[in-house]
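Bumping with the actual sequence this time:
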Amino acid sequence: MDTRDAVAKAREMGLDLVEIAPTAKPPVCKIIDYGKLLYEQKKKAHEAKKKQVTVQVKEIKFRPGTDDHDYTYRMEHARQWLGEGDKVRAAIAFRGREMTHRELGAKILKKLTVDLADLADVEVFPKMEGYQMFTIFIPKKAKPEVKKPAQTAEKKAEVAEPAKKEPKAAAAKAAPEPKNEDEIF
């Protein structure tokens, strides 16, 4: 249809001529209410934003002399955060002469990597940045669930039969039988 004819028809209907696919040969247009189109697009964008998952980077800090209990406490927090889908940045801060013993920090990060291996992958391997050594862990991708095989017809029948018998049992439980003649009166 010619552009002028399409514009005239849109005005006659009280609607707008909207170009839907400008890169197509020939370009595709529709006669619709432009305000309604904008409203629907805005609503779709809002719904998409609502469903979007934001990943935060949580940080745990260690020192080269961090004791076992403190290490375990911080490692459990890291496990919790990874389970929730957040990234974890583990940092070891060195001060003064501690810089000469970087292997202590590397040892802690290596132990942490082993302890979190079931939940996390290493995104950034241990490296020094100023007076800090750090590594970043990301949660492992969830494996797709294995579907259970469908029930056979025999198993479905077995499951359905007890369901039919249950109402009778429920009626019997509702009116208990008297145990002796004194309870009747």
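The tokens above came from a reply further down the thread. The CA atoms of residues 113 and 122 lie 8 Å apart.
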